[in-house]
Amino acid sequence: ETGVTQSPTHLIKTRGQQVTLRCSSQSGHNTVSWYQQALGQGPQFIFQYYREEENGRGNFPPRFSGLQFPNYSSELNVNALELDDSALYLCASSLDGHNEQFFGPGTRLTVL
Amino acid sequence: GIQVEQSPPDLILQEGANSTLRCNFSDSVNNLQWFHQNPWGQLINLFYIPSGTKQNGRLSATTVATERYSLLYISSSQTTDSGVYFCAGPDNTDKLIFGTGTRLQVFP
């Protein structure tokens, strides 16, 4: 059984740029959730994708968008990067969204 | 939405000591997870525990759903137990709401 994987591990961008983060769900899981974790805080929910459809969104602006593919892997896109977007981005997969969630190792994004 | 409070915020132990971490919820939750975040940021699943008690080695957890709290017990702590411990529960849309964490440091 393959766990949740994320790429890249680290990323450095400048303000105004765009970034795409990727996540492969654990085998057998059809739901991916994305979280942002700022330094010293708990993860904050961004959005969830279930069977390729957005299934819930947290308090994040529209420049945060996502996709889920037929194999249930997912992308998180952030446009017009701001300094406050610097954080650890975590994805989690689960079966049907309301069960136990398993997290990937995260992507650490630094915006300069 | 629900709010999650964790206590204590920080805990310093000597190797071999026992500890109890607490998680309070503002509303009832139909499941609850405990995680350990290692220094590299990876969230490791410890327990998925809607109610009752579970044990895994030196760790155990108890959730009393009717009173909206959960406890994580760490016995005979080791330096590798250091890190941040989070509890999280779903709101009515199944998104996980995390507490602010308990930072544990175990010294030899």
Structure description:
The complex is a heterodimer of chains A (112) and B (108). Chain A has no helices and 11 strands. With 112 residues, chain A is mainly β. In chain A, the strands form 2 sheets. In chain A, strands 2, 4, 5, 6, 9, 10 and 11 form a 7-stranded mixed sheet that branches. Chain A starts with a strand and ends with a strand. Chain B is globular, with a radius of gyration of 13 Å. At the A-B interface, strand 4, strand 5, strand 9 and strand 10 of A face strand 5, strand 9 and strand 10 of B.
Layout of helices and strands:
The complex is a heterodimer of chains A (112) and B (108).
Chain A: E1 5-7, E2 10-13, E3 19-24, E4 31-37, E5 44-50, E6 53-57, E7 64-68, E8 74-78, E9 87-94, E10 102-103, E11 107-111
Parallel strand pairs in A: 2-11
Antiparallel strand pairs in A: 1-3, 3-8, 4-5, 4-9, 5-6, 7-8, 9-10, 9-11
Chain B: E1 4-7, E2 10-14, E3 19-25, E4 33-37, E5 43-48, E6 52-56, E7 59-64, E8 69-74, E9 83-90, E10 96-98, E11 102-107
Parallel strand pairs in B: 2-11
Antiparallel strand pairs in B: 1-3, 3-8, 4-5, 4-9, 6-7, 7-8, 9-10, 9-11
Strand percent estimate of chain B: over 45%
Kindly state the percentage of residues in helix of chain A.
Answer: under 10%
Alpha-carbon distance between the termini of chain B?
Answer: 41 Å
Low-confidence stretches of chain B: none
| SSE string of chain A | EEEEEEEEEEE
The count of strands of chain B amounts to 11
Global geometry of chain B: globular
The assigned structural class of chain A equals: mainly beta
Helical/strand content category of chain B: mainly beta
- Overall pLDDT of chain B, averaged? 94
